[in-house]
């Protein structure tokens, strides 16, 4: 499912003394089946943007085309449920939204809310819990008896159980340990590859953006600053650093080699293997 934003503006508390312009002139197209990373400073509008992708927020100007639906500023919309089912959002710290007495009931809540029978919802819950790498016996437990990492996985399972076409992830691994982070990021990537789920990830990790995404969007002060492939985005690391953003460690190392030793590179290296190859080439060329 393709999502297109056209001239989107969003003002919080519009027409009040507390009005705040959080997004403006946002033009963006997210292809069906793509993996898009959104990066940018805190306050640059990333979470506000994400909430437009399933019509939780409606633009105060412009329009958003989500599959065959158009959400237009100033127009009343009906039947947003089908959009909410197709575009699943994993919010920051999603475990804060767990509420039911058992994990199973919590996960079944979403699908049942969209009209799935209890029996079918239980099947979906079982599948979802396996997907996030938890054992089935956890279904009978109270979500509040789990560890933080388990709670996060249960909350993610609740979104997966709705079988969305598009998965929107707002810093899904914030606060997890490195191993948990990698497991969860690999799980999302696997879902993206095997089921063709379009994935939109907000992250502060440039390594994750470089590793998983086909496209990176840089948000800056409420608008899209730049969009491109990881190669394109990280080909100008100085610009990113000047914006106060980070770059992958491998790119930082290349900058250092260039500055200290005069080694020139043809392209940014987004992983260690690539870096080793490019250093080897540069040494053989002898251009230092
Ligand atoms: N509920 C709200 N009411 C008023 N302003 C808000 C609200 N939520 C966010 N903002 C403001 O909108 C801007 C964008 O916020 P946000 O989308 O959360 O950015 P990010 O996710 O990139 O950190 C910030 O200036 C933030 O303070
Ligand atoms: Mg945010």
TrEMBL record:
A UniProt-annotated Pfam family: ABC_tran
EC category name: translocase
Boundaries of every ABC transporter domain copy: 3-246
InterPro entries: AAA+_ATPase, ABC_transporter-like_ATP-bd, ABC_transporter-like_CS, ABC_transpr_CbiO/EcfA_su, ECF_ABC_transporter_ATP-bd, EcfA2, P-loop_NTPase
SMART domains per record: AAA
A GO-annotated cellular component: ATP-binding cassette (ABC) transporter complex
Subcellular location field: Cell membrane
Protein topology in the membrane: Peripheral membrane protein
Residues in coiled coil: none
Keyword Transcription appears in the UniProt entry: no
Enzyme Commission identifier(s): 7.-.-.-
Functional description taken from the UniProt entry: ATP-binding (A) component of a common energy-coupling factor (ECF) ABC-transporter complex.
Assembly and oligomerization: Forms a stable energy-coupling factor (ECF) transporter complex composed of 2 membrane-embedded substrate-binding proteins (S component), 2 ATP-binding proteins (A component) and 2 transmembrane proteins (T component).
This protein's name: Energy-coupling factor transporter ATP-binding protein EcfA2
């Amino acid at each position: 499912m393709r999502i297109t934003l056209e001239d989107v503006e969003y003002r919080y508390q519009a027409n009040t003394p507390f009005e705040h312009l959080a997004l403006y002139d946002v033009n963006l197209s997210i292809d069906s089946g793509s993996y898009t990373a959104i990066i940018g400073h805190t306050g640059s509008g990333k979470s506000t943007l994400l909430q437009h992708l399933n019509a939780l927020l409606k633009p105060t100007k412009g329009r958003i085309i989500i599959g065959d639906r158009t959400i237009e500023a100033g127009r009343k919309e009906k039947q947003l449920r089908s959009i909410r089912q197709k575009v699943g959002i994993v919010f920051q710290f999603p475990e804060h939204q767990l509420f039911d007495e058992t994990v199973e009931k919590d996960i079944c809540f979403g699908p049942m809310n969209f009209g799935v029978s209890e029996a079918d919802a239980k099947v979906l819950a079982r599948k979802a819990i396996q997907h996030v790498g938890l054992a089935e016996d956890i279904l009978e437990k109270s979500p509040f008896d789990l560890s933080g990492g388990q709670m996060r996985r249960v909350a993610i399972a609740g979104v997966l159980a709705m079988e969305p076409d598009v998965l929107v992830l707002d810093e899904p691994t914030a606060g997890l340990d490195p191993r948990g982070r990698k497991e969860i990021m690999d799980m999302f990537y696997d879902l993206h590859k095997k089921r063709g789920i379009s994935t939109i990830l907000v992250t502060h990790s440039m390594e994750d953006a470089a590793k998983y995404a086909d496209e990176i969007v840089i948000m800056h002060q409420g608008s899209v600053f730049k969009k491109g492939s990881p190669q394109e985005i990280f080909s100008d690391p100085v610009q990113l650093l000047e914006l106060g953003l980070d770059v992958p460690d491998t790119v930082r190392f290349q900058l250092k080699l260039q500055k200290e030793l005069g080694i020139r590179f043809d392209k940014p290296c987004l992983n260690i293997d690539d870096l080793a190859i490019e250093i080897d080439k540069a040494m053989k060329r002898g251009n230092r």
